[in-house]
């Protein structure tokens, strides 16, 4: 007689019955080797795959997944396991309380760059240049907070400028940000009140010790600051000297160990300026401020 196990449904039936709850348990287990926030990331990826909010998924763990949702979720889990940073998978990141669209062609906005925005806001400028705008996070956050300001935002990368322009439209500030594909601020005529920049500042010597997720997945053009990490900052100082009005200011993000070298460079370009370093929230050297 043929034995039929009624307690175990056929595989296809079982897959069709996969629920949000079981998918989250499986996802958290699969991501545990690559991240310390495996459960949270599984929730974010399942929300992305289903188009539901995390709250809805957690409130209804019994909700079955469709075959398409399951396939999308499995693909996201596989790419996350391969080291792709979460924001590139969802195409979204939060910065200064705003949501930004991302592609792998732009740097993922970092919390320490919010210090740059805070320092810039303290100047209440009318004309600002954001050099190396990437996703546009700094320029857009400033435009949202400073409704009377006119902002120029540059990048060498045309792909980055497309993302930045999308973010400016998303937040209703596209009419006040002029995006330019340029080396530093070369096409802009001053005088302006403020130059801000989060330039590439990873020292060539430190490249190998960067986390693999950064080295392998974020754009090298956004990170590589050449020997010592100050190649772009050095050139930016000269450009700022040409652009800034008397009494204007330059704010530049830099690496935690670059404070002394950055101050020395700034002193050479601006012998009479007021120069200081502001720490980030973790207390590390982060922002070079030069006041003319
Ligand atoms: C560290 S990312 C910063 C992106 C964004 N502002 C942020 O804070 O997330 C540096 C950006 O500068 C751009 N960049 C690099 N060299 C440049 C140059 N010489 N002139 C203009 N932009 C440059 C890169 O393409 C990249 O988008």
Report on the structure:
The protein has helices spanning 11-16, 20-31, 38-50, 54-59, 67-81, 86-90, 113-122, 137-145, 158-170, 212-217, 220-223, 231-243, 259-269, and strands at 92-95, 98-101, 127-131, 150-155, 177-181, 192-197, 244-253, 274-279, 285-291. With 292 residues, the protein is an alpha/beta fold. The chain has 2 domains: 11-82, Helicase, Ruva Protein, domain 3; 92-291, Rossmann fold, CATH 3.40.50. The strands form 2 sheets. The chain has a 7-stranded mixed beta sheet, with helices on both faces. Strands 1-2 form a two-stranded antiparallel ribbon. Helix 2 runs parallel beside helix 5 and helix 7 (113-122) runs parallel beside helix 8. The longest helix has 15 residues, at 67-81. The protein is elongated. The N and C termini lie far apart (93 Å). S-adenosylmethionine is lined by residues 107, 109, 113, 131-135, 137-138, 154-157, 160, 183-184, 198-200, 221-222, 232.
The tally of structural domains comes to: 2
Uncertain spans? 1-15
Largest sheet strand order: 5-4-3-6-7-9-8
> In what range is the share of β-strand residues?
15-25%
Number of helices: 13
What binds here, in terms of ligands, is: S-adenosylmethionine
Q: Helical amount among residues, as a percent range? A: 40-55%
CATH structural architecture of the largest domain = 3-Layer(aba) Sandwich
